[in-house]
């Protein structure tokens, strides 16, 4: 059989074809030297793609057909520009000249430059043999001599624009949210308009997550064409979708930064955007999500194959009241339950007895830990657990020694108030003196206590995002994020055993940029099982279960006041990387005994939940490996139809020994008898015979 190469090129029509296991993507450099989109969907050969009709250009004196690989400003273009620049003489826009391309294995680079101005641009495409995800990004280059002084102002530089064939309808799936209520899935018909999804907060945000799914309104969990795009970026961002009445392709352009931010590309300098990846699937939303989960495991996460440990975190139990005796007592109980890693949350350092003081002073609080954290760490390790610690490196309280010494290190503008949120200000991680300081104390802290795990938090949005002494202040919007990435990357390189949980007031920075350098995400401060079902559903659209930290906590829930059986709280948290966050000092012996059994059950199903394929069912979620199936169900008792099983095999219920035909599990469902209580739920384990 002939091997299909991942990237191929037909010189006569200047057509490129990207081939993934189940899809094709094609573009063509037209006679106008502009890269036009041709195809994204079912597999085509290079012959098919080369024979596709060409783009027609201008259709009237008021409209053009769109569908470019990267919309720019200039000529008869009226859509959303992915690239907006202004040259030193005041001219704007781009007139492309195609310079050439390189194909290196599974990567394609299309090189363009402006016909007159010293602007170079490379469109990057990369595919993988085990995924239908196509990674796209862009490099901008100032082609002037490095000693020149004519800069190019960059007003917008998206990573890529995706074109989706506009079929009978266009429906968008995305998430909305808020603090304590992140990743709420919404599906809505796209208006004939430009629809902007964005964060202007300096983090990817609680309010929208940087991804979009597009379908014709006919896809569901199990079938239908879905085009999806995910931006790998953790700072402010913008994704703009444009639906045109003229039948032009539906376009989605996205990248780092929000509207109104500008910066200058200096002579000799180049700028690489983050990746804006896309995936086409014919298997509906379920297969789309599984495609992203597999891609993230294979190509994004640093340690995909490591089982995520059962964490105990003391935040909900003690708040800022962190003491040696209190943490030790919790650690003893956590270890008895089977926790594998004990995380001391906020309140262990400086003058941090509430949210008003101490951020920036990263040494153990002297009156609470007179001998440092050593004695506590020894207890935790003695109990057989690993040790983790909460940090918030990008922040400082005005009431801290750090701020008193370096008031200029925070984001600020002359003649503007320094808006405090949660009594804190944002340290400017675009400054190398600040990132150097952060790396040094983190490196020392991790080394001193051989810390296994950091919860890296970020608890407020940017305001007055200025840098008066900075060379090009607005770059800090993206350079801050790059600074965070650089510190984490360096820390991981210096401490290969270190694992990191990303957090920003819950799920305020849950994205592929963070997942490329962290192991899991704290997806919400809301630990109420009923609310979590919706939050976890939204998170699962793109992100895999192994990255989803979820704790079983107290009842009534400290945030919502809602009560739920212990079993239910555990079952819902078992849908990801289970942790425990309750105040164990108040749990009865019976509760502790039940919790111990539930943790043991989780460890038993962990390989299936964390490494299996996930299927979202009606009021249930199913995970499947080759021969094992785990179902976590909530809601009403009835036959629950399973998915992805072999109809001809027999599946044995590991708890009861009952046998089920795959065919009937798929059609009539799993006979479920949920307990009659508020918050009924069950975990069912099946093994293929
Ligand atoms: C944020 C986090 C919480 C907790 C607190 C500590 O809100 O999301 O989990 O760590 O900070 O201040």
List the SSEs and their pairings:
Blueprint: E1 7-10, E2 15-19, E3 24-29, E4 35-41, H1 46-51, E5 58-60, E6 63-64, E7 83-86, E8 96-104, E9 107-114, E10 119-128, E11 131-142, E12 152-157, E13 160-164, E14 171-176, E15 184-189, E16 194-199, E17 211-215, E18 226-231, E19 237-242, E20 250-256, E21 263-265, E22 270-272, E23 276-281, H2 284-299, E24 311-313, H3 315-318, H4 324-337, E25 341-344, H5 374-382, E26 386-391, E27 395-396, H6 401-405, E28 425-426, H7 432-449, E29 453-456, H8 476-494, E30 499-502, H9 512-515, E31 520-522, H10 529-539, E32 548-552, H11 566-573, E33 577-580, H12 589-611, E34 613-617, E35 620-624, E36 628-634, E37 639-640, E38 650-653, E39 659-661, H13 662-667, E40 670-671, E41 681-688
Parallel strand pairs: 24-25, 24-33, 25-26, 26-29, 29-30, 30-31, 31-32, 32-33
Antiparallel strand pairs: 1-2, 2-3, 3-4, 5-6, 7-12, 8-9, 9-10, 10-11, 11-22, 11-23, 12-21, 13-20, 14-15, 14-17, 16-19, 17-18, 18-23, 19-20, 27-28, 34-35, 35-36, 36-41, 37-40, 38-39, 38-41
Alpha-D-galactopyranose binds next to loops.
Ligands and ions found: alpha-D-galactopyranose
Q: In the residues, how many domains can be counted?
A: 3
Number of strands: 41
Instruction: Write out the CATH superfamily name of the largest domain.
Output: Aldolase class I
Alpha-carbon distance between the two ends: 34 Å
Highest CATH level, the class of the largest domain: Alpha Beta
Chain-averaged pLDDT:
96
At the fold tier of CATH, the topology name of the largest domain is TIM Barrel
Just name the CATH architecture of the largest domain.
Answer: Alpha-Beta Barrel
